[in-house]
Specification:
With 180 residues, the chain is mainly α. 71% of the residues lie in helices and 2% in strands. Helix 1 packs antiparallel against helix 2 and helix 3 packs antiparallel against helix 6.
């Protein structure tokens, strides 16, 4: 399977995850909390890099660079999802207070304070509205971000390994024999 196909597969996986998030939001009525919105942004970042890689069809070094970008977006998403999972595990008396919604914060707070609230989460981030097989939405997001990180590392290693193999096969062999 080519790198281009693998990148397209990653983009499709992100698109399906985002589609499910929008389904939960608009069909099931589950409003995303600030940390959910941050995770959604990281899913968009992962998908955008995968789409760019699939469209570009890069050689080995560029493929490794795309993979590193996916890894970094996946790491950021895993951090946000991990924070939300941690908030969901807190005892009720330790959960931070609920804050205003994102649109209110964007209109009335400085950007630095809005970003701080987004990344630290609020009390609404600790609420588990939906779960499947014992994992909340944040737990599933964390699992998917970790899977994307592992997938990106595998793609990078595979691309660099294929580069070494192809360069070893195409390098000219210089055999000189001394005249007798």
């Amino acid at each position: 399977m080519s790198f281009r196909s693998c990148a397209a597969l990653g983009a499709v996986a992100c698109a399906l995850l985002l589609a499910f998030g929008y389904y939960l939001q608009y069909a099931q009525g589950l409003d995303p909390c600030p940390l959910c919105l941050v995770q959604r942004g990281f899913f968009y970042g992962v998908m955008a890099v995968f789409l760019a890689a699939a469209a570009h069809g890069p050689k080995a070094r560029a493929a490794a660079l795309y993979s590193c970008l996916v890894f970094l977006f996946g790491l950021g998403g895993a951090a946000a999802a991990g924070r939300q999972v941690w908030l969901q595990q807190l005892p009720p008396d330790k959960v931070p207070q609920c804050g205003p919604d994102l649109f209110f914060m964007l209109e009335n707070f400085p950007l630095s304070r809005t970003l701080e609230k987004l990344f630290y989460g609020t009390g609404e981030c600790a609420v588990v509205d939906w779960s499947f097989l014992g994992l909340s939405i944040a737990g599933w997001s964390l699992a998917w971000f970790v899977a994307f990180c592992v997938y990106a590392l595998w793609l990078a290693i595979r691309a660099l390994r294929s580069s070494r193999i192809s360069s070893a096969n195409t390098s000219p062999i210089n055999i000189t024999t001394a005249p007798r």
